[in-house]
Amino acid sequence: KEHIAEVEAFNAETADQIEAFRIKYLGKKGILNGFFAEFKSVPNEQKKDFGQAVNALKQAAEAKVTSLKEVLESKQEEKGVYGDLSRPAEPIEIGARHPISIVKNQIIEIFSNVGFNVSEGPEIEDDWHNFTALNLPEYHPARDMQDTFFIQTDPDILLRTHTSSVQVRYMEENKPPIRTISPGRVFRNEAISARSHCIFHQVEGLYIDKDVSFADLKQTLLYFTKQLFGKSKIRLRPSYFPFTEPSAEVDIYWGLETETDYRITKGTGWLEIMGCGMVDPNVLRNCNIDPTEYSGFAFGMGIERIAMLLYQIGDIRMFYENDVRFLEQFKSSI
Ligand code: PHE
């Protein structure tokens, strides 16, 4: 009877524990076989009770083993379906922002701190917004500066070659004062190489108000380069754009200035980072802004070129290949 109580109270978690229990009671040298051996020496009048008790114990032990095995099996099945719910979770892989987005967001941040808003426009443009309004009438030789992708055979519809088209749209829809930057994707029919691609990104800026001068432009560029590169040794080289007069190209001095300047190791010297100038009066007129009342400046830069400088990237094609070994390196950036 004591044994029956013990058998019924028994519980086991593992297959090994159940097997040990089975051997203890039902094995060759187990408790039950011991009782069966004793049976012969039990006095006749007690044989019936003894026999019944031993049989009850045997059944109890067998039933226990069966039921424990069933419980164990059903637990293992559950594990198969749900996994081990107490196990620590797999770490979640966190992605990285694309370097183009990182640099674009930095540029937006820098200009929004001095009152510029962000404007956007269509990537498929018409001739007016991409060229004609910007003082590039049909047959103007400067149109060749930007090899254009046209949409099928319609010469009026094209992929924008710069985001200056957004500035035209913005001037058409808003009255001065205007302070806006236009980030976006642009397209040019150029051979793909380490230095240039047929798709790239620009941020162009526009500032129009009363009495805006070239000094305001230069000061804005000094502020911008100081914020983005941590330095503002720049020079303006006279240049030509149909939509600005005078026009200039902005170079930044990219050299080892201090021993701890970790970003800069190669490609030192003057490097061109953007174009700029005072908005041509013809452009203002095309956008219904009176050039006798207002003046302004504009500038435009390629995001890839700036990201290549900041991150020491030697080949522009890396931005579009989506090689995870490249992209993963930007995990620590915002
Ligand atoms: N739109 C010019 C380009 O695509 C850049 C630029 C913008 C130059 C504004 C001057 C003023 O290269």
Automatic annotation (TrEMBL):
Cofactor note as given: Binds 2 magnesium ions per tetramer.
CDD domains in the cross-refs: PheRS_alpha_core
Keywords: Aminoacyl-tRNA synthetase, ATP-binding, Cytoplasm, Ligase, Magnesium, Metal-binding, Nucleotide-binding, Protein biosynthesis
Domain Aminoacyl-transfer RNA synthetases class-II family profile per the UniProt entry, residue ranges: 103-321
Subcellular location: Cytoplasm
Gene Ontology MF terms in the entry: ATP binding; magnesium ion binding; phenylalanine-tRNA ligase activity; tRNA binding
EC number(s) per entry: 6.1.1.20
Family matches, as Gene3D superfamilies: Bira Bifunctional Protein, Domain 2 (3.30.930.10)
Binding site for Mg(2+): E245
One GO CC annotation: cytoplasm
Catalytic reactions of this protein: tRNA(Phe) + L-phenylalanine + ATP = L-phenylalanyl-tRNA(Phe) + AMP + diphosphate + H(+)
Record-linked NCBIfam families: pheS (TIGR00468)
Family affiliation: Belongs to the class-II aminoacyl-tRNA synthetase family. Phe-tRNA synthetase alpha subunit type 1 subfamily.
Protein known as: Phenylalanine--tRNA ligase alpha subunit
Organism: Salegentibacter flavus
